[in-house]
Amino acid sequence: MQAEVRHVEVNGREPDHEELALLDHEGWGHFTAIQVRDGRTRGLDLHLARLAAAHRDIYGKPLDGDLVRTRIRHALGGRSDASVRVYGYWAGQIVTVRGPQEMLSRPHSLTVQHFQRPLARLKHVGSWGQGRFHELATAAGFDDGLLVDETGRISEGTITNVGFWRDGTVIWPEAPKLDGITMLVLQSQLTARGVPQAESVVRVQDLASCRGMILCNSHGWAIVGRVDDVQIRRDDAFADAISGAYDGCPLDQI
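Given the sequence above, the corresponding structure tokens read:
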């Protein structure tokens, strides 16, 4: 469940009623989600690059990264720890500030759901199907849904990326998906640490023989303990590799 929005700014200022109505019409736009701790975050350059590329893709023009940083700082209003979202719309930028969120450290559970996010490469707003499948998963007692196609090929979670462990190599799904910031941070840090990685097709049928599985999003990362009734084995070497990569990533000042 999302924490209550504590503060909203549109184009660097408190919005009037007309501007605030943009939040009620989220069907067209894009965003990035940032966890801020002590005024810093992981992968700030990746967040800014995502916003610029998506804005150019959707509206044909970039976003100024320095301006985005300035507006995040302004919206934070001195808060050192927070969950921040930056939305790009045709009319400008919206920054929302909520309380900080953390990934629960226990093993997570997923349930298979047959769905493919439209324009999966974009972190776009107003994806009713994605949100609905997440609600169905949590209502059934799972932490997230695992999105697959008609052949069982795994792409991502409804609000997470997923990764696997195979013969000492971290495997990322070869399928249409969002390149999540935490996933990109992990990939960069794993490369720096010499941990092998590959992109490969992974299907639901492969999970029984899987040696390890994680999920990750802006809240952090966690081990996946089961997918429906399939128990996922845990390899401590995998957990140690991911933990070292995540904890070793430097935090950037907003």
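The two ends are 26 Å apart (CA to CA). Try to locate this feature in the token string yourself.
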